[in-house]
Design goal:
Uracil-DNA Glycosylase, subunit E; 8 helices; 41% helix; 234 residues; six-stranded mixed β-sheet; alpha/beta
């Protein structure tokens, strides 16, 4: 019965990923992601850009769910895989590898062999937004995708929100799914609050260059948050 349920969940997730890739709900984001894919930047001028919404990555049995903001214009929007091909991904996957959540410390393309271990990565918005700033309406248009992932990831124990937008999106997600926070906790690096039903929400500064290049977020700080997540598995 468990195997049959897992097969149904896997099929549902595959359908969802296809729907995400083919989504065109947000005209502003469609126009932007496709323009970036056409015009490119000089360092990637010879590459074929993905230029579509970016699906999630990871295992249905994952206990750690990571929710980011949105794909980067020349990262996920170029490679077609979340947090792949940019400096944010370099920082994130190196840390996930150190913590045992990723099979390798780098993520450069969809076929580079990377596998996540006990981890699933999603985002509050699936298309690259201009200036990395999706509108509330655009976030709302993606909310149903998060809802369906919530249902599929039945083993989740911790949700790691990267940045305040992801933190707020996760709280809204939890409330929609009758799993509201058990206390009011403001976003901050290392903030945590239990959600009704058991999952723990943990916050971290986003792994963007704006934070990692300035020292606002260091490898040691992020390693500490990942250790905090592992402790919540018990």
């Amino acid at each position: 019965m468990i195997e049959a349920d897992e097969k149904v969940d896997s099929e549902a997730l595959a359908v969802l990923q296809t729907e995400i890739i083919n989504c065109s709900r947000c005209p502003r984001l469609v126009e932007w992601r496709e323009r970036v894919a056409r015009e490119k930047v000089r360092r990637f001028a010879g590459e074929q850009y993905w230029g579509k919404p970016v699906p999630s990555l990871g295992e249905l049995s994952a206990r750690l769910l990571i929710i980011g903001l949105a794909p980067a214009a020349h990262g996920g929007n170029r490679t077609g895989r979340v947090f792949t091909g940019d400096r944010s991904g370099d920082f994130l996957f190196a840390a996930l590898h150190r913590a045992g959540f990723a099979s390798q410390p780098t993520s450069t393309s969809r076929d580079d062999g990377l596998r996540l271990n006990d981890c699933f990565i999603s985002a509050s918005v699936r298309c690259a937004p201009p200036g990395n700033k999706p509108s509330p309406r655009e976030q709302g248009n993606c909310a149903s995708f998060l809802d369906r992932e919530w249902d599929s990831l039945t083993q989740k124990r911790v949700i790691l929100a990267l940045g305040k937008i992801a933190w707020d999106a996760t709280i809204a997600l939890a409330k929609r799914n009758r799993s509201a926070p058990t206390a009011k906790v403001d976003f901050g690096h290392g903030a945590q609050v239990e959600l009704e039903g058991g999952p723990m929400l943990v916050g971290s500064y986003h792994v963007s260059q704006q934070n990692t290049f300035t020292g606002k977020l260091t490898p040691a700080m992020f390693d500490s948050v990942l250790r905090m997540c592992r402790k919540c598995f018990k």
